[in-house]
Amino acid sequence: MVKSAAGGRRLLAWPEPLVADRAPLVAKRWSEPGVIFSAALLQGFDLALLNNNLHYFDEARWPALFARVLEHLAPGGILAIQTPVLVEGALARWSGVHASLATFDLFLRAHSNLAGLPDAAQLDAALGAAGFAEVGAESIALGGALRFVWARK
User: Which H or E element spans position 127?
Assistant: First the structure.
């Protein structure tokens, strides 16, 4: 239910019945490996989120992951990905972000069940190859190390 708040702002009160009805997988054990590829999902979502979890999928699985998301989005629907990426540049080095993310990337790659941080150019290319009509990104942290990547069906 959308309600007006002070100052004319519109807030979404949770849980919205329509959203709750469309979320039957809340109790599903998403920690099971590969469940995203086999779970029964509804069709016609306007938005799908991958929030700081792309490193759980190696680059070889991106085509299947992105195709699965694309299949369940409504026309014009958006896949939004928030992810850290390795960046070069003086600002990233000066702020310590580059060293921190390089260490995190090394940590991820040291585990057999995790992939490293995504390369921004490869991620854009993979989303385009999956069939998304439009792809873009916005930096949401100093130096561009944390990005909000979006792809429109």
Answer: helix 120-130
Question: Residue 43: CB partners within 8 Å, gap ≥ 6?
Answer: 71, 72, 74
Q: What is the pTM of this model?
A: 0.72
Residue for token pair 């941080």 = 117
Beta-sheet strands, E only, within 1-145: 2-4, 10-12, 45-51, 73-84, 134-139
For the record, the structure tokens of 142 come out as 């100093």
pLDDT tens figures, 85-98: 877 777 667 777 77
Beta bridge partners of 83: 147
Residue 10: what are its φ and ψ, rounded to 5°?
-110, 130
Is the peptide bond prior to 15 cis by the omega test (within 30 degrees of 0)? yes
What pairs with residue 49 in β-bridges?
80
Are 98 and 92 a contacting pair, CB within 8 Å? yes
3-state secondary structure of 116: coil
